[in-house]
Design goal:
By secondary structure, the protein is mainly alpha-helical. It contains nine helices and no strands. It has two domains: about 55 residues, Arc Repressor Mutant, subunit A, CATH 1.10.10.60; about 150 residues, Tetracycline Repressor, domain 2 (Orthogonal Bundle).
């Protein structure tokens, strides 16, 4: 979150907000979203309950803000990975590696989101879905542009670039879920993900484009 140019009081408020969200994340990961109260979040983050309500009207709003901030963080990291210089293959590989780093760094949040979001109130879920979908589509569009450029340069075979983007996301997400369920049995493997997707997509004789 940007703090440049803010007053000391505003920076302190942002710090307190961050501490509250971190305390909530810890509790949600330990006991589940529905089994945690605002009073318990206040105790964990070492603030009074009244202080929590100056930041968030209720637990649903707190959860929503936590999710949206994490999604924005993920979006920023992944778009940065896709905007590096180099070949299309290099950009796609960097994207997969960045997905792995981001999700491994935020495993507690990922587990909470996958297990808890289905059970939150419909109105809140609808709002989250709309904003998260916009970020997701932004990444798919960027991936599709990279695939399209690779097709244009005859690095990749002529396949719908948007569907290639969806396929890459689907394979990577599947690996994530398997890792969450069986971390020792199914580790993330960038080379395997790219082999599964690109074995029949990369045109022969273009190995120099992998650099």
């Amino acid at each position: 979150m940007e703090v440049k140019g803010l007053s000391r009081r505003e920076r302190e408020r942002l710090r307190h907000r961050k501490e509250i969200l971190e305390g909530a994340l810890e509790l949600f990961s330990e006991r589940g979203y529905h089994n945690v109260s605002m009073e318990e979040i206040a105790r964990r983050s070492e603030f009074g309950v009244g202080t929590l309500y100056t930041f968030f009207h209720n637990k649903e709003e707190l959860y929503k803000e936590m999710v949206l901030e994490k999604v924005e963080e993920f979006h920023s990291s992944l778009m940065e990975a896709l905007n590096i210089s180099g070949s299309e293959y290099k950009k796609i590989r960097n994207f997969v590696e960045s997905v792995i780093r981001v999700f491994m760094k935020n495993l507690k949040f990922v587990k909470i989101y996958l297990t808890e979001t289905r059970g939150i109130p419909f109105k809140l879920k609808a709002g989250l879905d709309k904003k998260i979908k916009a970020q997701y589509e932004d990444i798919l569009r960027k991936l599709a542009e990279i695939f399209a450029e690779g097709i244009k340069r005859k690095v990749f075979r002529k396949i719908d670039p948007y569907l290639l983007a969806v396929a890459l996301d689907g394979i990577t997400s599947s690996f994530l879920i398997q890792h969450l369920e069986h971390p020792n049995k199914h580790p993330f493997d960038t080379d395997l993900i790219l082999t599964i997707l690109l074995e029949n997509v990369i045109k022969r004789g273009t190995d120099d484009d992998h650099e």
